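Hey, can you fold this one?
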Amino acid sequence: IYGLPGETKERWEKDLRQAISLNVEHISAYHLIYEEDTPIYNMLKQHQICEVDEDSSLEFFTLLIEYLQKAGYEHYEISNFCRPGYYSRHNTSYWKGIPYLGCGPSAHSFNGTTREWNIPSIDRYIKGIEEGQRVFETEYLGPTTRYNEFIITTMRTVWGTPIEKLKQLFGIEMWEYCRKMATPYLKNGKLEEYEGALRLTREGIFISDSIMSDLLWVD
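Sure. Predicted structure:
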């Protein structure tokens, strides 16, 4: 986690050098988010601590990319870096829309068109399994939701959003809409077409939220 209260460029560079020295296979790095009803959020609201400014946040993210890439890590997802071939199999399944099965209380499952989640109660979950009646809830994902999730998850990765797959899954209208909204970013170098996919360039990563927001379908 970076962007901590009072963090400096020097402290962040020291953290990066230490992480690299451990020679780990995978590094995930996320900017601190202040979630409501947490102690650190309350400290922020009471002015006991201050958020880092936007310029510092941008500098920290730039340093993160530069240090890890120079050390041989592949920047394969906005917040994730790995040694060649050591992608997170768990998270990559989410980013690529691969169906998954969740087992146990509160576990989530996804089959491409629906999302399910088991009840959180351990006792009720066990009772349901023993009686052959798994207790769960289901969310049916409509075309708009599935399209938007497809954009958000695939665009975050080095593999990008596969153009033909988008057309096959969501049809001509959404495909043409995506192409239309992507055009300005292709022209200004924030997006590129690479191996049949739309993907963020180095410059595009820094405004990824804005780009993905523009590509989303709004009913």
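DSSP finds nine helices and nine strands in the chain. Let me know if you want another pass with a different chain boundary.
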